[in-house]
Amino acid sequence: MRPFEAIKNLTVGVKLNILAFLIFSLLLFGMVLTTNSSLNSFALQAGRQNVEQNAQTIQIRFDENEQEMINNAVTLSNISGLSEAITAGNINSAQAELLITASRFNFDDIDVVNNNGHRLFDTESENSEDENRLIQLAKLGFNASGITTSSVEGKPQIFISAAVPIHNIKNETIGVLIGSR
Length: 181
Fold this sequence. Notes:
The protein is 57% helix and 22% strand. The protein has helices spanning 2-8, 12-77, 82-88, 92-104, 129-139, and strands spanning 109-114, 119-122, 144-152, 155-167, 173-180.
């Protein structure tokens, strides 16, 4: 009971000052909690917005890379003499120009496949199921692109690949060219 006796003995002015101090302390504590909560919410919202913008930027860049891959693969498929070489079943006559042009486009792997699925030209011996799916789409006449994976020396590799149909003079699909980076 001593604390209450000490308060009883204080003057009214001191009691009012203590009361005002307690009220202002509670208000300040409430403001600090509210500000902290608002700042945490703002930081979380700003972080989400930044992640969304970065994801959109990455998606746009990926789409641009896919389109560039398709355009480059179409250019490769139109190399003079390639359709005749596929028809003949021997790609040696177009191989040098194919390699030089593929190098200019920074392809890591290029394959030329005939309609029977036989690979007439392949710079990498490792072929994935993902590549085969793209080849099947290109055989149907579609320009196809996507992510392909393979394992090189036990290490997983991820590529952006594009497969395009190769046409003869009659505009018939006679094969597929697939390139990867």
